Amino acid sequence: MRILRTPDERFAGIADFPHPPHYADVPDPDGGSLRMAWVEAGPADGPPVLLLHGEPTWSYLYRRMLPVLAGAGLRAIAPDLVGFGRSDKPAEPADHSYARHVEWVRALAFDVLDLRDVTLVGQDWGGLIGLRLVAEHPQRFRACVAANTGLPTGDRDMPEVWWRFRRTVEKAEVLDVARLVRSGCRMPLGPAAHAAYDAPFPDESFKAGPRVMPTLVPTRPDDPATPANRAAWEVLRTLDLPLLCAFSDGDPITAPMLPLLRELPGAAGREHPTIAGAGHFLQEDAGPQLAAEIVRFIASVR
Question: Among 111, 128, 213, 281, which is least packed by CB within 10 angstroms?
Fold first, then answer.
């Protein structure tokens, strides 16, 4: 496996993100290792909250939420997925698979950080990965927040807007990562944020992760990831793990997943907030509001 590592100087001077990175190695499938990065905020002995980002962002996406969570006494942990942010970047699309991304996050969260009684917050791929972890390791979790995400099995077609996004990513000669983020926001993405989202990717050779992730979403019943996701749904339908669905009112990509998630036992009888005025990247558009909802939810299930 050929691995690229973004030079540290690419992250120098990023505004409004004062959190120093932490690093640890996780195994790669070829017997080597990959370096994963994460940031933390809040007391080390606080209830842990695992904040998982998606395509094509990194932990910087949670910069407006980390102070709110930390201020409530929570230990907020935001990793960078392999291929994103400060984490190592396998250079070939074939190096990435749904199962590998689940395993990489599992290794960091449980083998390295030994997180227990954790609240998952998953958005976009953060939910696709995180919900699998919840189903496969329910004893590690205290609660779950699903925010503009889902767990597709390929048994239902994805929305046309998502297919347009996938075709754009596949066909783009130069993949403009910051522009993709901006297109999923309702609020303007300023120059500083634009630069921060471009920072992990010095050139096209670093972008295998963002390019391949849409192709890893199960879109047909015989997709390689479909059996594991179907099995995860079966477990989730039996779990009484507290679940909060905090979706925005402006994300046509994940909106079809919301009714399915709200049918799960842990979601029953709860008031699920709608984050108004936000798009797909609701952390960008309404991060403090989303963080406040998470704080209230965690307090209600302690």
Answer: 111
